[in-house]
Amino acid sequence: MKKLSWGVIGAGGIADRRTLPGMMLAKNASLAAVMEIEAGPAETLRKKYNAAKAYTSVEELLADPVVEAVYIASPVSAHYKQALAAAEAGKHILIEKPVALSLDEGKELVKICAEKKLQFSAGFMMRFHPCHRELREIISGGGLGKIVSLRAQLTCWYPEIPGAWRQDPALSGGGALMDMGIHCIDLLQYLTGSRAVRVSALIGTRIFSYAVDDSASLIMEFENGAHAFVDAFFNIPDDASENRLEIYGTGGCALAAGTIGQTGGGSCSLVYSNPGGYNKNQNREESRGRQNLSWTEVNPYTLEIESFGDSLLNGNKPEVPAKEALQVQRVIACAYKAARENRTVEIPSG
Ligand SMILES: NC(=O)c1ccc[n+]([C@@H]2O[C@H](COP(=O)([O-])OP(=O)(O)OC[C@H]3O[C@@H](n4cnc5c(N)ncnc54)[C@H](O)[C@@H]3O)[C@@H](O)[C@H]2O)c1
Fold first, then answer.
1. At 158, which CATH number?
2. Would you place residue 274 in the very low, low, confident or very high pLDDT band (cuts 50, 70, 90)?
């Protein structure tokens, strides 16, 4: 099988924790080079993942002719410059979320990649979770009727850490919403095939002393009329984090816990309903027929890498089109604006 040859920029964080192990299992990927800012870690990662080269500068990695595509997993403030350089060097780009500090930077990257006929995709690997893929099928097939309400939640415990780039708005672009709520927004838009058109938001820093948000709650209206709720918090202990996904329609609901996250695990139950007439007694427990959704656990990062490669090698439609990655960034920008101005903000389409 033809393999796509990858270079990884910022290989020591999520790349080492999740994406590189996932890439090692991908059928159509080979790792040509890793880049880290210091030589020691770069060489350690090269050995760990059996890459041909270890670099300490982006320029060196981009000059490597064996590298066809880059996975950029550096801190967000470095994304724009590095992706721009990658595009100039003719490399296809899979970039971690958020694609850039601002929507304008993201737009420019997408435009340049389109002009150069390079693939540009964002790291929304939760689209590849088998449960989410099944739910997308069920929803598009009308299995839950007309979707009226959606909720996606992602929370963790993230206390003050001196020097952490995520806690500095100039380096991260935002806190819980930018870092975690972004996955939730993308997932709800992906699952429904609809987009958020209006947003209201409460965003603030309630528990910690850093300058980014540790609490973000969004209410959105989707184009299909559904109401969508996203809650992203940095101040809920990990063992109290449920990471709920809830989808309600006129024909039932899907309730998941733990599928929003970095693994292919979690659980999900479905209720298919034929409501019939009005039930004055509201005998809910009697009428409920819950079914558990089961799936074979796979590594979503492996599927993300395989899918990116597949669209380049076999011409299949990219699973995370650049336009959709930008749309999520647009929702985030409007949500911060809505919170700042204490009003509902219309979200333009791209
Ligand atoms: N999709 C996911 O599951 C997921 C999870 C976590 C983080 N992320 C995203 O991945 C990106 C990185 O986050 P992280 O948690 O890995 O951060 P991190 O700080 O843990 O790791 C970043 C790595 O990049 C290196 N680095 C620092 N400055 C660099 C530069 N200028 N050029 C190249 N490398 C540099 C660091 O040495 C470090 O090894 C962010 O965009 C983040 O939002 C995605």
1. 3.30.360.10
2. confident
Query: What residue owns the CA closest to ligand 1's atom 7?
Result: 14
Residues 161 and 293 in one domain: yes
Same domain (yes/no): 208, 292:
yes
Q: What pLDDT is attached to residue 289?
A: 75
Angle between helix axes 103-115 and 322-341 (nearest 10 degrees) is 170
Reading the block at residue 72, the tokens are 């950029």
> 99: CA distance to ligand 1 center in Å?
12
> CA-CA distance, 279 to 161, in Å (whole number)?
53
> 97: Cβ below 6 Å to ligand 1?
yes
Is residue 103 located within the same domain as residue 182? Answer: no
How many domains does the chain fold into? 2
Average pLDDT in the 120-145 region? 98
Closest ligand 1 atom number to CA of residue 125: 1
Do 141 and 282 reside in the same domain of the chain? yes
How far apart are the CA of 35 and the centre of ligand 1, in A?
A: 12
Indicate whether 309 belongs to any domain: no
Cβ(74) – ligand 1 distance below 6 Å: yes
Provide the domain limits for residue 221.
126-301+329-346
Residue 55 CB partners (closer than 8 Å, separation 6+): 33, 34, 35, 42, 61, 64
d(CA 100, CA 95): 9
Taking only the tens place, the pLDDT of each residue in 331-344 is: 999 999 999 999 99
Check pocket membership of 73 for ligand 1, CB cut-off 6 A.
Answer: yes
Pocket of ligand 1 contains residue 14 by CB under 6 Å: yes
Query: Residue 111 sits in a domain of what CATH number?
Result: 3.40.50.720
Q: What pTM does this model have? A: 0.97
What is the whole-number distance in angstroms between the Cα of residue 235 and the centre of ligand 1?
21
Q: Residues 76, 134: one domain? A: no
Please work out whether the CB of residue 36 comes within 6 Å of at least one atom of ligand 1.
yes
